Amino acid sequence: MTPQQAQSIESGGLDSLHEFQRDAVLAQESAAEAARRVALWQLPMVADADIPTALDVPPSLWNQQKTIGDTPPLFNIGRRLFVRTADLREWLDEKAKRGAPGSKRLRRQAEAVTVAR
Fold first, then answer.
1. Pick from 4, 33, 55, 97: most CB atoms within 10 A?
2. Cα–chain-centroid distance for residue 93?
3. Coil, helix or strand for 77?
4. Across the strands, what pairs with 81?
5. Pairwise CA distance, residues 87 & 92, whole Å
6. Cβ contact 82:73 at 8 Å
7. Rounded to whole angstroms, how far apart are CA atoms 102 and 100?
8. How far apart are CA 60 and CA 98, in angstroms?
9. What angle is formed at CA 93 by the lines to CA 89 and CA 99, rounded to 5 degrees?
10. How far is CA 83 from CA 12, 38, 92, 107, in A?
11. Which residues pair with 77 in a beta bridge?
């Protein structure tokens, strides 16, 4: 190791290198996740376990939607649950057309405005 390399490591150069490598790995993971998401939308049907990835939502949110019955039509093949991609798109379009506010605070505000009218 040269004296310059030693000085660079002492002055934080190694930390910078590790941060750069970490950022590069995160970027690769993000790119792989985005590619997987695109591939899922190109399939004729999506497995229930892959729907949160396709929608980019937490699995807990998708499970909550299933619990309250707010999902596109789901069907079984064997023991696995699926949704047709076309049905998933239609369901998303309906939700977008309704334009319901997403957060509890916004829903309460919308309800207050509706009640006040």
1. 55
2. 17
3. strand
4. 76
5. 9
6. no
7. 6
8. 23
9. 145
10. 51, 16, 13, 28
11. 80
Q: In what order do the strands lie in the sheet with 45-47?
A: 45-47, 80-84, 74-77
DSSP 9-73: HHTTHHHHHHHHHHHHHHHHHHHHHHHHHHHHHTSSEEEGGGHHHHHT--HHHHHHHHHHT-SS-
From first to last of its 117 residues, the chain has per-residue pLDDT tens of 555 555 555 555 556 666 767 777 777 778 888 888 888 889 999 999 999 999 989 999 999 999 999 899 999 999 999 999 999 999 999 888 877 666 677 777 777 776 766
Closest CA to 56 of 81, 30, 80: 30
Q: Do residues 21 and 2 make contact, with C-beta atoms less than 8 angstroms apart?
A: no
